[in-house]
Amino acid sequence: MSPFDRVKDIRLNLEEILQPHLVSLPNLSDVEFLCTAFKRELEIESSLIEDLKGKYIVVGDLHGSFQDLNFIIRKYGNPSNKLKYLFLGDYIDRGHTSIETILYLMCLKVLYPDFVTLLRGNHEFIGINKFYGFYDECINRLGNTEGSAIFEAINETFPYLPLAAILPNGIFAVHGGISSHINTLDDIRKIDRFQIVDCSSSIVVTDLVWGDPRKLESGQLTAPSERGLGEKYSLSKTQQFLTKNNLTSIIRAHEACQEGFMASLVDDNGKTVCLTVFSATNYCEQNNIAAVAIINKKGLISIEKFDCTSSDDEIETDRGNESLEDLYDALC
Q: InterPro entries given for it (predicted)?
């Protein structure tokens, strides 16, 4: 079996887990193989992914909701030159299917490397996900020995994840945001992210994944965050950053939104300069709906909300009559 076919099989196995019959998770050998292939794709990317072109589906926090991820891919279709995907981080923790979620995302990146971009969130750090659900899920579902090994193998891939990206029309994509330590894109370009295992290793990385947009006192650019990590950044700071770097707006995740999205910062003309997207339905039993942002080739943004727990939310696919198997055959 070729390496490509092996990844396809792992993906199909993950999809079958959602079916009524019981299907086991991938074994340690398959997970280690997938992690190696995943790192190989990520290591050639820059810390700041620049000049992304084409139509994008932008996905916010998933937090271990494989049901939401599967819903999104089934609704919009497999990544392709016509429709690409950008994921903003926080793939694991909180939810109950973090293992499937992160492994499926790895499969997508390996199978469609040019059409999938994955950024690092604050939960893609071992110091966080060891205590907020992912470690316990690995141990409880896979046992101490294999669970610990898979937990470590997956965490070893996270420093390879890029930290930010630039979408069409100068839209700056990041998990959290900016800060007093992030003024130019060079502040991100020069990060040696492969060495960043712990947030404390880099204040810039900390701020990128932990920052929050907030209304601050007049003239105030940033302020310490109540989270204890990262900074709050104001409309003025955001406008300053966008102007200096020839950008137009920020799209980010990191905060649960009851309607799946939120216009976090709006200028005096009513233009949203910072948009938050959240893609996990009923996050922590909050009964929220989820959303994705659709960005066309010109950089125009539209929002599509969904609730994959509702039977009324029918899935429409843009794949025509092609099945997954047909698509796989076309790839080979």
A: Calcineurin-like_PHP (IPR004843), Metallo-depent_PP-like (IPR029052), PP1_catalytic_subunit (IPR050341), Ser/Thr-sp_prot-phosphatase (IPR006186)
Mean pLDDT of 105-125: 98
Catalytic residues: 123
What predicted TM-score, i.e. pTM, was given to this entire model?
Answer: 0.91
Using a pLDDT cut of 90, give the percent of the chain over it: 83
Under the banding of pLDDT at 50, 70 and 90, the label for residue 282 is very high
3-331 under CATH 3.20.20.60, yes or no: no
Give the start-to-end residue ranges of the domains of the chain.
3-331
Residue type, 189: R
Phi, psi at 120, each rounded to 5°? -90, 135
CA angle 253/196/134 to nearest 5° reads: 55
**What is residue 284's DSSP assignment?**
G
Q: What is the mean pLDDT of residues 112-140?
A: 98
Per-residue confidence (pLDDT) for residue 313, from 0 to 100: 53
What pLDDT is stored for residue 326 in this prediction?
34
Q: How many CB atoms lie within 10 A of CB 226?
A: 8
DSSP class of residue 129?
H
The whole-angstrom separation of Cα 283 and Cα 258 is 9
Helices within 26-170 (DSSP H only): 28-42, 66-76, 98-111, 126-129, 134-142, 144-155
Q: Is the separation of the CB atoms in 266 and 291 below 8 Å?
A: no
How many residues are given for the chain? 332
Q: What's the rounded Cα separation, in Å, for the pair 78 and 249?
A: 27
Helix (H) or strand (E) segment spanning residue 173: strand 171-174
251: CB partners within 8 A, 6+ apart: 58, 88, 167, 171, 172, 173, 174, 274, 275, 277, 293, 295, 301
Distances (CA, A) of 277 to 41, 43, 66, 147, 258: 26, 27, 17, 31, 10
Which residues lie across from 180 on neighbouring strands? none
One DSSP character per residue, 72-92 reads: HHHHH-S--SSSEEEE-S--S
